[in-house]
Amino acid sequence: MKSVNAYEIFKSSILFYLLLFCLLGFETANSSENKSIVFIVPTTHMDMDFTRPPSKSMDLYSDFIMQTIQILEKDKSLRYSIQIASAVKYFLEKYPEMEKRLASLVKKGRIEICANWSNPHWSELPDELMVREIAGAKWWIHDRFGVWSNIADNGELADPTPQLAQVLMSCGVPFFHSAKIMQFNNNDYKGLTGVFRYLALDGTSVLWDANFYNISKRYKIWENAEKKEVIEKVISIARTGNVSLLTAGSKKWDDGLPEFENLLNLVKYWNNDDRFRAHGKFRFATYKEYFEALLEELVVKDVPVWTGQTEHGELLYRWGWNKYRDRALFVNVMKDAETLASICELYGLMNYPRKKFEDLWLEMAYVSTHNWGKTDRKTREYFSIASQALKEAQEILHKCTELIAGATGGVVKINTLPLTRDDIQGIGWKKQTTKSSDNIKTPKVELENKYYKVKAKQGIGLIGIYDKKNKRELFRTQENGTILRIRSSYEEGMGAERTTIPKKILSREEGEISNKLLKMMDAEFKCEQISGDKNSLVLSGYTGTIKCEISVRLINDRIDISFETKGKYTAPKVTIDIPEILEKLLGELLDKGPMFFASVEFDMPDDACARVSIPFGSVNMPLSMPAIGDGTFFSDATAGVQSWYVAYNERWHVPLQSFVGARAATPYWLDMCDRENDFGIIWAQYAPYANMFRDGEKPTRFYKSLWRGISDGRLYLWSFKSHKGSWQEVNAARFAEEINHPVISSQGGKSTNIKIPEKESLLQIEPGNIVTTCFKKAHDGRGYILRLYESAGKSTLVSIKSSGPLSEMKFELTNIIENLRGEKISGPEIKIMMKPFEIKTLRLIP
Fold it and tell me: What pTM, to 2 d.p., does this model score?
């Protein structure tokens, strides 16, 4: 046996461990080098209507998608993210022969279609429109390509609202990307991250990346590709641990195709240069691939949690207000129409028009994209789509009411909400006997019932509403002597877009003349005539050159006040000499028309609490506007997101007015209550749009923007109600639902062979803090969908009683996109537990 030298053994061991160390070191070095990844997502942001009319934007986007398919088929390393699903629908209508090629890339994950139909300002959307914006996109993508998209994107200011996070998660969308807020990250707001968990009111959260919007534009990457400091700056902002996201659009961001050839060269250059390789491996990706990598990173590193509500859009986009008004009415009508169509199908009166309903929701989602109305004020594409969608929804609703009336054999009242009203139980109807009205309008200046006394004065308007039970006035008198002030103004816009003549091109004298002109054209509502009957007062008069009416109606413990225009806008006469330079500018100003707004001042302590609705919930409004960036801007739960958006408004657009420190997007209700909850007042709005403001100097005064521009026959309805206790105790959200979905009266329809009970109730839901947002046919046709949310911020045991055709159905817990099959519950009365501000979706199965 050969002997072994100890030295040789030692030498071999040393060589072995040295080799192992080198190998490990090499692997570690490679691992360290490749551990960090910089994801580059090529995408296109179409600024619909800002740069060109909507249809031309879609035409261009379709061409970009076509070119992208051809480019990606040649280079398998490339990816592409399509920001809005509606663009793909438009593309396939234009290029149907490309469907298979696009489907192949979508199924392979190389092209992603984001789960949002458009790029809306989310906080402006009513609850169900927000749902259909996401769920409709998810369904459409899945039905067409067989994949479920799990990323939502917004290439503009997203204007988040807290419950968006809960809606996204219930739709199977855990990831959200947005742009245009991170430019202040390293300047004014140090320490804020681009990645955070965005929190809903029920505690649900989505992972949000607020990536700065475009490396190709902001950092001029093409010109600075070799500058290490540029890429270091970019990565320092975009980095979360070992994962970075860079968005790559066109050089100008809006309406462009990513420069794929330049991007390919850059990535190759960066990956082969030691200076850049130290930052990690650069690779093309979709947002989905980036977020999945980010989730792995967050196993050991978490990110901040933010929440808050912001509003930026509707005041700015003055030309779109007719569209927004139609959108608000549409949502109310559609929810009622879906409920009645479900009733009609349950009784065999008609087939539920599921596809028609879903198409109409997508049409309204399409026109709800962020836009200025800049080009559309001439082409009126969005206007006509919104108007047509509303008209078709109204036709379906009318057909359903006639069918129900015909099947009962007479005049019928229909209650579309699952609660008892006018002696009609939830989601039900009752045959009525007709009564002739003896209400004859006569001149009068007072109106009274056992709850309130209303006073008006010729030449002024409403001067008082007295609460007889609590022995106090509800509102304070304002500067013009009224409690409801209606103004039109050229000088003051209510928000970012002010109607002013540019002073920088005018001399001092000309500027003084322009200011005088603007003030001359301002107007207050002037009451010229007052009449009424036993339940109402009507105040007729003018606001400037527009004939208007204010109507007040007492309905038990509720006060309804409506404001309606009775004629078309005409420009005011100008009686002073105008310098030539002002003539064109003044003409443009008169064409735009004035801003109209209303204001009320509650007779409450200055430190009274204000609660305002948001989609699927509510938040507190601040007493005054805090300094930008202090993280308490909107609600008691608000953090950095709100401040970012405020900062962006202040710097990117034009300065905001003093009272916009507390503005709410299209709220359905506002509640003012004293600190002890001894007394409060609810203000609910019918089909709200545009914004509501709390005055920065007078905390109990609120402004409601109405419209700007030429309007004819616009009706605004507000309902007020005084109460004891807090907004939770009085069920403020349900009160607003009742205002927005009044009992429907039908004068009868054609008699049908099918007869239904003269009185019926299908669903009764209690307690009062539970609000129903939809009752409709399921997307897959399997049963019906009922959606609820808890509105008072407290855990609640919910009772759902069913009868008629629904009594034999089973209830199954599902999600918003209806692809989850949960626990089944049966019986004429079921009970479920709901968390504070939770949204629940149930399927009713025959």
Answer: 0.88
